[in-house]
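Why do we care about 3D structure at all? Because function follows from shape, and shape follows, mostly, from sequence. That is the central idea of this module. The next example makes it concrete: a single protein chain, its amino acid sequence, and then its structure expressed as tokens.
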Amino acid sequence: MSRADIAWVTGTAIIAVTIAPALKVLGLLPHDLLVGWGAPFPGLEQLFFGPVMAFLLLLCFMKTRRAFVFPVIGILRALALGFVFPANLEHLGTGIAGILAGFFAASLMRNAATVRLCRWLPLLAALFSGLYAAGNYMTSVYFGPAAQTRIILLSPGYAAAVVVGSLALGGLLGTVALVATRTAPALSRNDPMAAR
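And the structure:
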């Protein structure tokens, strides 16, 4: 790995691990805001964190060409949220999303010579974002408070809407990341992630 790759991976990992505590300090943590507003369904904050994390990880992946950024950073974030801030095992689904998206990213890189990566990258972001929400709902049902689990199980349509919304927003931000990278001077015409 080059120094630039190490810098990208390190920087993305730091953002992934610290974004929630930073927002908490600023009073802008989506979960707290939604609770204060009387949000009727748990997990709505995933409509923010899933797409944002998908955007950051896709940028890092496009810059480094390293599929491991998804599982490694996804697991680091899951551990940080699950055991450090706040100690809440409901967030371990983030690691599941990172692992599954990592397999998909690795498959794309293995077939980079035969597929148009620019068409698949937004889908990769959408996949991670959707799995982020779905994985966290699964771990919430297992580890979360009984009252919250009851709400989720009694309203599966709301949970599905959050997952679909996260998937759609992840794909949208993935497209933004792709366009931003393709317009950067460092992306050459021969780059496999450029449009063909």
